[in-house]
Design goal:
mainly alpha; 4 helices; rod-shaped
Length: about 80
């Protein structure tokens, strides 16, 4: 293996790991799981593009939405009394 090939492999490898680190960082800033690091390690720049396109995850809004859904439920029919 020539020196040029070694340099290309090293640069490519560091770039790939860099994408994984950036995926984890961007995901954590958006309130997502840091497991995006592993996705970035697997898919590289494609995972970085995907996580960058995701909306921010707001846990409070999700909780409010669940509470609203629970309040909107139709109450169950009472049992008929004889």
């Amino acid at each position: 293996m020539t020196d040029l090939e070694c340099v290309i492999l090293l640069v490519g490898g560091f770039s790939w790991v860099g994408c994984a680190v950036l995926c984890g960082y961007v995901a954590s800033q958006k309130g997502r799981s840091v497991s995006w690091f592993w996705t970035g390690l697997l898919l590289g720049v494609f995972a970085l593009i995907a996580v960058a396109g995701l909306p921010e995850f707001a846990e409070e809004e999700t909780r409010e939405g669940i509470q609203d859904q629970q309040e909107r439920r139709i109450p169950e029919d009472p049992e008929p009394q004889e």
